[in-house]
Amino acid sequence: xxLPIERGLARTFAGHIxxxxxxxxxxxxxxxxxxxxxxxxxxxxxxLGPHFRAIAIDYPSHGHSDHIDWQPRIEDYARAVIxxxxxxxxxxxFALGEAVGAAVSIALGAGWPxxxxxxxxxxxxxxxDADTATRDIADIxxxxxxxxTGFPAPRSIEFLLQNxxxxxxxxxxxxxxxxxxxxxxxxxxxxxxxxxxxxxxxxLDGMAALRCPTLMLYGEHFIYGRHSALxxxxxxxxxxxxxxxxxxxxxxxxxxxxxxxxxxxxx
Length: 267
Prior knowledge:
Layout lengths: L5 E7 L2 E8 L4 E5 L10 H7 L4 E5 L16 H14 L5 E6 L1 H12 L4 E7 L7 H13 L14 H7 L10 H14 L5 H8 L2 H7 L4 E6 L8 H7 L4 E5 L6 H4 L1 H12 L1
Parallel strand pairs: 3-4, 3-5, 5-6, 6-7, 7-8
Antiparallel strand pairs: 1-2, 2-4
């Protein structure tokens, strides 16, 4: 039976934060990929639901959360998670996120160790330096077109696979791409806030600050997987596990496998 998705709003420093939740049990706070929303985490929430209370927020300016007119930091997204927990009366939780969501989970574990018991980082991104971050973001912008007003333009799955396969699952569909398109429309002209936040985030310092048990999951074909050993060197107690045949958006395409890793680690 497919578990129902609950929704709500939490009042935070960044305005109202929209959340989706599923299941019951120990709480897992789920953080989504750049330029997406909690709507792309529904599959993961539902497979976590039999064992956990899985809650995914929309970052400020994303999904159905209020838009902000200032540049956030990754730590601000983490604070939005914590204040959502406060709003829901949650004292402690596990943290789980993919891509930018992995960075948010690092910030949660490092910044709020009294609230976060364990973290699972899925496809953690890493820029070696500021110039690399600038180039990588510019390259991504080239394949994420805008219309004349600056709003994101819709993309077909054929366009994505021809121009940006590294940021796609292994077997994506147009229905999945449509969900990405909707998420991009919801962010609108603010869609680069999360990438700019990631560019300024010190991933290595964040990893070094983690004291809680940490699991790093990488898709076999994920572009930044080559940096996994460097990140682990900063956090020697972190465990690395590879999802064979995986690439990007594994929290959607490989939700059951991710949930299996998470269940074994968080329990």
